[in-house]
Amino acid sequence: MTIKKALVSFFFLYLALLISASVAVSFLGIDAGSSINIGVLVGCVFWVCSTYGKKNGKYFEGKEKTKIVLGFSAINILIQFLLSLTLLPSGDLSTVLVSIIIAVVFIGIIHSLVVYFLVGMCKKMLIKNGTING
Which of 111, 86, 90, 114 is nearest to 100 (CA)? Predict the structure, then answer.
């Protein structure tokens, strides 16, 4: 598996699961807030990272890890922004759009820290399971 394939897999997996989870939670009438986003993000990062480690017999090193963390974070921010646009009310869009951009950037920073932590944590898990060498 290449870095590019890992990023593409993350994009489609994250988008599909985020939409599916949001629809399911809404259908059930549960107000889960941002916990759905974090849950889906955690699952997708672990899934793609562990698949990469299993298929390649190695893990992201140095620049690869940087590309993965930045790529996952950029995909997350892009999807969050696009999904936020679907919630725009009609009327004065400039005020609402600025608010959405600020919120997505703030949440993006927090999610980026979570992604960085999870990518490292997944490596430790794969080493402990004997999937890759430390």
Answer: 86
